[in-house]
Specification:
Blueprint (H helix, E strand, L loop, with lengths): L7 E6 L14 H16 L3 E6 L15 H25 L4 E5 L8 E2 L2 H9 L3 E5 L9 H12 L3 E6 L21 E3 H7 L6 H9 L4 E5 L5 H6 L6 E4 L1
Parallel strand pairs: 1-2, 1-6, 2-5, 3-4, 3-5, 6-8, 7-9
Antiparallel strand pairs: 8-9
Helix pairs in contact: 1-2, 4-6, 5-6
The chain binds uridine-5'-diphosphate.
């Protein structure tokens, strides 16, 4: 087995990553495939905390007429649906998990308690953070930055669907777009690169949290990044 490069990571899975080719909702086979790779890094004794997005159901800012805060709460509830699906897939293959939500819903999951989350990780459980930060006007990328700082994760692994790193322009529009092997947070802000929102980028930058942006279309990439293979874009302070 390859040696892992990290002891504690935050894996940020966008909601889209769980939708497979359907583009909406949850594709069980896709979730199972991702769970399998997460279990592999767990077996390498890497402590894994996951922040799940919700874009496969709803994005607060896309609402037309709805009150923004209400729309964001819908988005946060969407992330919780994803968290439960991922938990189910992981538990099915024998991985111990806990879901912690930033909005109280004690019948379905634990509340977010930082010290408890760390304890779960130390016991080898995968912790899935749901309901974002619990606050409207934020994203799950910002949540990943926040939780990474709180639990002292060494790195955020930002898994993206349909793209395998950070490019100087949109590779779907510009076929000659160039992929960065490494980048600084300030470059993301200065160049307005759309890989993460500016709140998330600033939080990572201010707290010197390294980030690796990589593609999740092949879920085996999770193991590749954890073992230090250069497949995406490294972002540092
Ligand atoms: N959201 C929020 N506060 C948070 C995290 C998420 O209000 O701290 C809402 C927001 O509406 C967002 C939605 O939840 O659009 C889904 O999260 P996100 O768009 O980050 O998901 P992803 O794009 O990663 O699938």
């Amino acid at each position: 087995m390859d040696k892992p490069k990290f002891k504690r990571v935050i894996l940020k899975l966008s909601g889209e990553a769980l939708a497979g080719d359907k583009g909406f909702g949850i594709d069980e086979e896709t979730v199972d495939n991702i769970a399998k790779e997460i279990s592999k890094i767990g077996e390498m004794d890497v402590q894994v905390a996951i922040v799940v997005g919700g874009g496969n159901f709803w994005r607060g800012r896309s609402a037309q007429r709805m009150d923004r805060a209400t729309s964001d709460y819908i988005g946060m509830l969407g992330t919780t649906i994803n968290a439960l699906a991922l938990q189910d897939a992981l538990e099915n293959i024998g991985v111990d998990t806990r879901v912690q939500t930033a909005i109280g819903m004690q019948e379905v999951a634990e509340p977010y308690i930082r010290r408890k989350a760390i304890r779960h990780l130390q016991k080898g459980r995968v912790v899935i953070f749901a309901a974002g930060s619990g606050n409207p006007y934020f994203s799950t990328d910002t949540t990943a930055a926040l939780r990474a700082a709180e639990i002292e994760a060494e790195v955020i692994l930002l898994a993206k669907k349909g793209v395998d790193g950070v490019y100087d322009s949109d590779p779907k529009i510009n076929p000659s777009a160039k992929k960065f092997e490494s980048l600084r947070y300030i470059d993301i802000l200065n160049r307005g690169l759309g890989i993460m929102d500016s709140t998330a980028t600033s939080l990572c930058m201010d707290n010197s949290i390294p980030l690796i942006v990589f593609g999740i279309d092949d879920p085996e990439n999770i193991v590749r990044v954890v073992t230090g293979e250069q497949i995406g874009t490294d972002v540092k302070g």
